[in-house]
Write a structure and sequence with these properties.
19% strand; binds 5'-O-[(R)-(carboxyoxy)(hydroxy)phosphoryl]adenosine; single chain; alpha/beta; globular; 2 domains; 5-stranded mixed beta sheet; binds zinc ion
Length: 334
């Protein structure tokens, strides 16, 4: 069979990235240009600045990706691009670049949902086997998804308010840590002990999540202690927060595997880089004979390699877009 080379573009938030993926699982070259340091000055992503930086970077990133791969556009089979969800001004830059390349070089154009990309980051590690449960934990999403085959998604639960990464970033801000705070809270948590009495986030029988309660509890605790003239032990607070998050996420995920009679689990999204979450799932899956895939740390956060992996399967299913493809900031379904 002829090899399929997908040139993929991702620009949904503050990373400008391009990648060339062979046959859905082989990374030929990937470039990720992060704007993180710039946005850290403002305590979070500034959409206007993000889109302007994507404009400045997209051509350089594409050129470097092709150069590193030593591949010309003639050898590329199709072009995949994240069309949403994300920041509209950021998405538009990637979508316009992809449409331009597809038009000039007469290549099929493949629209990829950002979260489907995160799910397929796992395919770069090990080929997906079905049925499986996907736990999506990112800055904008917290979802449990049942997949019976490639591109067959059934959402079985999601967050009712904040996404888990959002809760991490807000807690980090309360602890005066720079953006993005998730990895820093994770690092602190490993140095601390679980001493603070925080509530468990939505510990019910459903597959839904809610993280605004625990986030508010952390904020209130900090203010109350400060009013009493006490200082907060950041390590212990981070550890107490992280433990509650891990407890609920693992409990609901393991319940889903059991009730859906599935023995394969994949974890997707930026928060999948969390060491506490990775360790706990590794142990639980080992005990319960569950095949677990978690992407490499640098493929958990936003990158175009995952878009190329997802794009390969969309290509097989003839999921092509026309040149009127538009970016979408919100997309309800996967
Ligand atoms: O998937 P991603 O790169 O962007 C979205 O699609 O949202 O996820 C970014 C999120 C941020 O909230 C960041 O703080 C969080 O992932 N994150 C982490 C860790 N690494 C990244 N959260 C907790 N622990 C980590 N180690
Ligand atoms: Zn993402």
């Amino acid at each position: 069979m002829k090899d399929i080379y997908i040139l993929a573009i991702e620009s949904s938030c503050d990373e400008t990235s391009a990648s060339i993926i062979k046959n859905g699982n082989e990374e030929i070259s990937t470039v990720v240009l992060s704007q993180m340091d710039t946005h850290a000055n403002y305590g979070g992503v500034v959409p206007e600045i993000a889109s302007r930086m994507h404009v400045e970077n997209i051509t350089l990133v594409l050129e470097e990706t092709l150069n590193k791969a030593n591949i010309t556009m003639n050898e590329i089979t199709a072009i995949a691009v994240t069309y949403g969800p994300g920041l509209i001004g950021s998405l538009l830059i990637g979508v316009e670049a992809a449409k331009t390349l597809a038009y000039i070089y007469h290549k099929p154009l493949i629209p990829v949902h950002h979260i489907i990309g995160h799910i397929y980051a796992n395919n770069l590690k090990k080929e997906l086997q079905f049925p499986l449960i996907a736990l999506v934990i990112s800055g904008g999403h917290t979802e449990l998804v049942y997949m019976e085959n490639h591109y067959k998604f059934k959402k079985i639960g999601s967050t009712l308010d904040d996404a888990v990464g959002e809760a991490y970033d807000k807690v980090a801000r309360v602890l005066n840590l720079p953006y993005p705070g998730g990895p820093l809270v994770d690092a602190l948590a490993h140095k601390g002990e679980d001493t603070y009495n925080l509530p468990l986030p939505l510990d019910d029988d459903s597959y839904n999540f809610s993280f605004s309660g625990i986030k508010s509890a952390v904020i209130n605790l900090k203010h109350n202690e400060e009013q009493k003239g006490n200082t907060i032990n950041k390590e212990n607070l981070a550890c107490s927060f992280q433990n509650r998050i891990i407890k609920v996420i693992t409990k609901k995920t393991m319940k889903a595997l059991n009730e859906y009679n599935v023995n394969k689990l994949i974890i997707a999204g930026g928060v999948a880089a969390n060491k506490g979450i990775r360790n706990e799932f590794e142990q639980l899956c080992d005990i319960n004979n569950i095949d677990l895939i978690i992407p490499a740390i640098n493929r958990c956060t936003d990158n175009a390699a995952m878009i190329g992996a997802a794009g390969y399967y969309a290509y097989q299913l003839n999921q092509f877009a026309k040149y009127d493809l538009n970016a979408k900031s919100n997309i309800e379904n996967l």
